[in-house]
């Protein structure tokens, strides 16, 4: 404990006590404060019973839903691929189209409201930049999310003492030893407790995005599946353990989702949206992963100091009956100035009266009238006493008394207090690490290639932008290859086929590929031509044979040349079809096709 003022200490190593697995169950998540009446407060529009609030935060809930979701999507992707990626019958109905529009509008509006709720909670929690110690105050507001507003006034859970505490002795807890529900000024009670919990539940509803894609006969990307399953676990851990950086996940993710579902709504209504907007949204998603991972990890390595009022016991020497002594001085002053002509007996009477009025009979008894027999001056000659009165000062004994004084000191506090808060952070890092590492790897490769001396580019900014797009596509391709392998493995396991076939052999099976116009080009397992191509070959053979006979060539020679020309023609037809298919797929993925 030291320092002349609040200080920030970035880069400090966290305590090993927070790296505990499984993390401590204490403290349980605190439900949002109950408003006086429903819909009276934007920070908590309606009450949520504690048993429901913590019931859905049991770890079995997100683990089960995420596992079932990922497995189901792998099986449905394999099912669609087997059936030529044909749209399901229900996807062609008007009711399905209306549902898709309603789903996207609902999520766009809800995400925008959640984003605003998080912005509002930060506005109420973070001090204005013009305030004293605004930097440390902002760090304190983002690290400690319970209690009233003010540097050092937060309420935090002490895992060593197994109780909630505050550095400010004036901050009171409720009768159950929990933070007061009416404490405002920190992000938990200002909206994170309510809107963060609802946002966690919305991650389960968002899986309908994938169901819609599957019903349209398309393949759900592995990146999308990974994102949805990981988001469930990330939001769960952040709210369950009340981890400080979870507000950013809710804020940024809801903001991007508001734009993303607006884009989906516009396209569902039949309007054409530039491809650049979709790429921008994808870039924002990847950027969110990188910034979010960095911000969350920083909480583990930050500490700071807060003002603490410390009580000290100080020894103080005091005189007994200080009031009586003061009154005695006043009495002497009064009798010597206000009553200069009073007789000696009158002065003595006045002093006695003043002492008795002060309640000090002891001092009053020591006042004697001049000439009295009991007076100390009675032993002195009358003439000598009259001319030179002798004053005997009264000595009062002193004693030591302990007095409490308060001094402000600055105490070191970590940003993260519990193993649960730390667990939520490194679970998010584990979720985001593969995406971040892949992105950085592809970005460096692409940027180095674009920045080589032999490469011409207009500016560094353009090179970075192109490298970013290439890195995003690289992440998508890498994850897609892993996802397809996983889907084949799940499909083979469920159907009991053992090890899945390789990509080369899989192409020879009766699965078919989607052509440019969306129809599957059917082939059998031996690679024979489809009926459409077979009719084309027969017609071509007939025309060639007729032309050769007209030219006078022999029967045998005509047939041989016809076969050769037919094979060349069919080969050219296949190549053109494959080229068009690849070109269309490149447009869908937003990648440049090789022409």
Automatic annotation (TrEMBL):
Please provide, alphabetically and separated by semicolons, the GO molecular function terms listed in this UniProt record.
fatty acid elongase activity
Q: Give the enzyme's EC designation.
A: 2.3.1.-
Q: Where are the transmembrane segments?
A: 60-79, 99-119, 194-214, 255-274, 286-306, 423-444
Q: How does it sit in the membrane?
A: Multi-pass membrane protein
Q: Where is the composition biased (Basic and acidic residues)?
A: 546-586
Q: Family membership, please give it.
A: Belongs to the ELO family.
Protein name in the entry = Elongation of fatty acids protein
């Amino acid at each position: 404990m030291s320092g002349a003022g609040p200080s920030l200490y970035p880069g400090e190593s966290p305590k090993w006590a927070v790296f505990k697995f499984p993390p401590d169950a204490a403290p349980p998540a605190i439900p949002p404060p109950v408003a006086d009446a429903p819909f009276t407060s934007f920070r908590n529009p309606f009450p949520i019973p504690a048993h429901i609030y913590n019931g859905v935060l049991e770890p079995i809930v997100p683990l089960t839903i995420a596992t079932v979701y990922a497995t189901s999507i792998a099986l449905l992707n394999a099912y669609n691929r087997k059936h030529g990626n044909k749209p399901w019958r229900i996807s062609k109905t008007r009711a399905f189209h209306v549902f898709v529009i309603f789903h996207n509008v609902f999520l766009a509006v809800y995400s925008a409201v959640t984003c605003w709720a998080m912005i509002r909670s930060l506005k109420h929690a973070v001090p204005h930049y013009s305030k004293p110690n605004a930097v440390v105050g902002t760090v304190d507001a983002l690290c400690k999310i319970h209690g009233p507003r003010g540097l050092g006034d937060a309420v935090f859970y002490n895992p060593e003492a197994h109780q909630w505490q505050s550095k400010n002795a004036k901050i009171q807890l409720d009768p159950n030893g929990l933070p007061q529900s009416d404490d405002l000024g920190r992000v938990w009670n200002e909206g994170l407790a309510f809107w963060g919990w609802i946002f966690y539940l919305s991650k389960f509803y968002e899986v309908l995005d994938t169901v819609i894609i599957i019903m349209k006969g398309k393949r759900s990307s592995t990146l999308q599946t990974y994102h949805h399953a990981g988001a469930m676990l990330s939001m769960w851990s952040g709210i369950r353990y009340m981890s400080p950086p979870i507000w950013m996940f809710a804020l940024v993710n809801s903001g991007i989702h508001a734009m993303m579902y607006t884009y989906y709504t516009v396209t569902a209504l039949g309007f054409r949206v530039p491809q650049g907007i979709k790429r921008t949204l994808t870039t924002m998603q990847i950027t969110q992963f990188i910034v979010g991972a960095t911000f969350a990890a920083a909480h583990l390595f930050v500490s700071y100091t807060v003002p603490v009022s410390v009580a000290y016991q100080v020894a103080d020497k005091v005189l007994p009956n200080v009031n009586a002594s003061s009154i005695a001085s006043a009495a002497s002053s009064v009798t010597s100035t206000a009553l200069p002509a009073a007789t000696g007996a009158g002065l003595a009477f006045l002093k006695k009266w003043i002492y008795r009025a002060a309640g000090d009979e002891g001092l009053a008894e020591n006042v004697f009238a001049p000439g009295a027999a009991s007076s100390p001056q009675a032993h002195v000659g009358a003439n000598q006493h009259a001319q030179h009165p002798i004053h005997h000062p009264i000595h009062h004994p002193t004693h030591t008394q302990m007095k409490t004084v308060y001094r402000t000191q600055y105490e070191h506090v970590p940003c993260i207090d519990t193993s649960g808060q730390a667990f939520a952070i490194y679970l998010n890092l584990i979720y985001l690490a593969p995406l971040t590492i892949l992105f950085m790897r592809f970005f460096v490769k692409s940027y180095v290639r674009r920045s080589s001396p032999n490469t011409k580019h207009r500016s560094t900014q353009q090179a970075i932008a192109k490298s970013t797009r290439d890195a995003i596509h690289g992440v998508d391709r890498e994850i897609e290859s892993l996802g397809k392998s996983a889907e084949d493995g799940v499909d083979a396991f469920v159907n009991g086929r053992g090890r899945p076939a390789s990509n080369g052999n899989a192409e020879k099976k009766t699965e078919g590929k989607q052509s440019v116009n969306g129809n599957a080009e059917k082939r059998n397992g031996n690679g024979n031509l489809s009926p459409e191509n077979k009719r084309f070959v027969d017609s071509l053979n007939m025309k060639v044979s007729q032309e050769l006979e007209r030219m006078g060539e022999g029967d045998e020679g005509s047939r041989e040349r016809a076969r050769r020309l037919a094979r060349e023609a069919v080969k050219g037809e296949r190549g053109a079809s494959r080229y068009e298919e690849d070109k269309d797929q490149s447009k869908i993925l937003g990648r440049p096709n090789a022409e």
